[in-house]
Structures are given as C-alpha cells and as structure tokens.
Amino acid sequence: MPDRVLIIDDEENIRQMIRLTLEAAGYVVAEAEDGIEAFAILGGDPAWSVILLDQRMPLMEGTEVLRRLKVLAPSARVVMMTAFASVELAVDAMKLGATDFLRKPMTPEVVRNSVAAALKKKSASQTVEPQDSPHDHESLKTVTMNGFTILRESDVTRALLHQRNERRFLVRKPGGREQEVVVEISEEAFKSAEQASGGASMEKAFWTAQAETFLSDFIWNDGNVPPDGKLILKGIDPDVLTKLAQQKGKT
C-alpha cells in the first residue's frame, strides 16, 4: 500500500508543487491550508505516514501545530518547511518531534529526498534531546536537514581519522547511502582563532564543532552534500571570535 503524505501549507502553489511531485513518485497525497483544517483531517483519519508542515501560517504557527500533531498522529513523521530558515529553528522543531527540516524554496528532488528520509526514521520522537545551545556540537549532529543527517560517532562503524587541518564526517543521504565528507581547516581560520584568543591553541573539540557547523550550514543552504566530498573552512563565525576574545579578556 502506498505511503500517505499530508501537506499543511497556506500557499496553494506550494501545495500543488509538492502534491504533483509526490504523486508522481507514487505517494497518496492530501492537503490542508492551515492547522485547523489539518486537525479536522487527522481527527477522522490519523493514519498518515508523513506530514509536511509549513512554519509560518495564519492562525497558528507550525511549531504549535506540531505539538498537537504528536498527539493526533503520533506515528506520523513530521517534516517542517520554512522560507525563514535558521538552524536554531530546525533544532527547536526536532526537539518537538520533527524528523527533518526543509528550507524553502525547495526543489522537487529535495522534497522527494526528505520524504524518503523521513520514512526511514524509526521514531520521530527519538531524533534530538534538548540541548543548552542550538549550535552546540552535540545538538547539531543529531539534526536532519533536507533529508541529510550527520551521523553520531556511536552510529559510525569505522573510525574516522582526523588530521590537524581537517575533520572527517559521515553523512547519511535520504536513500540511506552514507558518504564521507572532509572539512579542511585553512591556515586563515587557524590564525583568526589564535589572534582572537591571544595566541592560545584551540582544543581539537573546538575545531570539530566549527567544521561540523560549517558542514551543517552547507547542507542547509544547498540541500545536498558537496559533490566532491570536500569543503574548506576559510574563516570563523564573528560571534565565535567575539566569544574567544571575551574569554581572553577574562584570563
């Protein structure tokens, strides 16, 4: 029996694009223009495989709709969608039980990838544990965006060897295949961190976190992994440099 997908979005053209994309891929699709209409649909029939949920809608925002969906349709995988993208919002949605987070506008391929990845999830409620900061290394590596997941160390069956100037990550693609991605840390990045910290040498965990944030941002913005499996980190987030300088001032 085909998997069933419910689209909740107030923009009719977006719903139509997603419907046509998914119906062509063999899914059974229904639509709702807001949370209220979706609740009515789910109240009569909660058996939906995946729910694609827009964040910004009239009457009720997507995250509030998501809270209720986990009661009305607890077995459904929920994929959040938004044109107002941020990793912070993605992490918040994951904490509420979303399995993936899509950045609008998305291509038909990204839509298909995300639904395929969501169907492979064992449980929407097991994706993320609450963290103190959405940019913490531990929180970022549990987040699925555009159908791609940077795997936890415990999920990687082989050791990923890191050099001083690079970090290696294993990314699970929507179809389940895994690809190794190397993030090379440039000398410019090393120098900017050392200058901000007053010449102090950064710990390995610091550069691992910076590399993973960079990879997460790439997947978030491009909806894919780098074609050649390699990225070059040329600089550090100014906010991170500011924190390093502040820490230097306290020592």
Structure described in brief:
By secondary structure, the protein is an alpha/beta fold.
Characterization of this structure:
- The N and C termini lie far apart (63 Å).
- By secondary structure, this protein is of the alpha/beta class.
- The longest helix has 19 residues, at 204-222.
- Helix content is 41%, strand content 20%.
- Helix 1 packs across helix 5, helix 2 runs parallel beside helix 3 (62-72) and helix 7 (187-196) packs parallel to helix 9 (238-250).
- The model is unreliable at 123-141 (pLDDT under 50).
- The protein contains 9 helices and 10 strands.
- A 5-stranded parallel sheet has the order 2-1-3-4-5, sandwiched between helices. Strands 6-7-8-9-10 form a 5-stranded mixed sheet.
- Strand 6 and strand 7 form a beta hairpin.
- The protein is elongated and about 65 Å long.
- It has helices at residues 12-24, 35-44, 62-72, 87-95, 108-120, 137-140, 187-196, 204-222, 238-250, and strands at residues 4-8, 28-32, 50-54, 77-82, 100-103, 144-145, 148-150, 166-172, 178-185, 230-233.
